[in-house]
């Protein structure tokens, strides 16, 4: 499973939401044949991966 998080990498360690989200997805996939492929970006690179779910949040 591919997941694109459209936030700077440094934010992932600060905001508990992202760590809980990634951990929950990984836990759900752990017993099956699928794996998590994570792409972290803070630019428009995510638009080049149309088949991957994308997590975005409003920037303040």
From TrEMBL:
Keywords: DNA-binding. One of its GO terms (molecular function) is DNA binding. This is DNA-binding LacI/PurR family transcriptional regulator. The keyword DNA-binding applies. It comes from the Bacteria. It comes from Haloactinomyces albus.
């Amino acid at each position: 499973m591919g997941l694109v998080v459209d936030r700077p990498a440094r934010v992932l360690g600060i905001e508990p939401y992202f760590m809980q989200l990634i951990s929950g997805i990984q836990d759900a996939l752990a017993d099956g044949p699928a794996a998590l492929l994570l792409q972290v970006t803070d630019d428009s690179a995510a638009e080049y991966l149309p088949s991957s779910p994308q997590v975005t949040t409003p920037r303040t």
